[in-house]
Amino acid sequence: MTAQPTQDRDDPYRENRQLIEEICQGCCVPGKYCTLKEILIRSPKDLRTMVQIKCIEKLKYERSAALGTDIGWQRASDIWILEGYAEAFGRLYRRGMKVDTIYASVVKSVETAKQLSPPPVSHNPSSDGAQPKTPSLPTSPSNSGAASAAPSDTTRAAG
């Protein structure tokens, strides 16, 4: 007696497998076994997180191409958060959405919001025309010996 192949509907990793196949499209040889894909498929990561990471990668690629230099993962992640892409992703994501679909929806949402937002109004209460000073974070440890927080750390803590 021969063993019957596992039916796709019985595969506990079916949804993970479909998402990883989509994410790895163009990276792995179709029809060939890929150890990295198998590890990712069985990883406990939330599918939503994997989709968002792929969206950040797409943003990183687009921004890097536009600038002619790799902006890196940290900068891409900062842009994703600070420019409102993460918030839009949270509103728009639905389980089962294709990466390209959610990414296009997020970008469209953020770009539409930017177009609808009024430009910042410069209000200068001083009579001498000088711009008001904004406080800056210290770049060295304070006199108390505590290290100062980097701007990105402060941003993350506030978000």
Question: Secondary-structure map with pairings?
Answer:
Elements: H1 14-23, H2 35-42, H3 47-67, H4 72-82, H5 85-92, H6 99-116, H7 151-158
Helix pairs in contact: 1-2, 1-3, 3-4, 3-6, 5-6
Short description:
The protein is mainly α.
Describe the structure.
The chain has 159 residues and is mainly alpha-helical. Among the domains are: 12-44, no CATH class; 45-116, no CATH class. 53% of the residues lie in helices and 0% in strands. The protein has helices spanning 14-23, 35-42, 47-67, 72-82, 85-92, 99-116, 151-158. The radius of gyration is 22 Å and the shape is elongated. The model is unreliable at 1-7 and 132-159 (pLDDT under 50).
Q: Which shape, going by the Cα principal axes?
A: elongated
Oligomer: single chain
Low-confidence stretches: 1-7, 132-159
The total strand number stands at 0
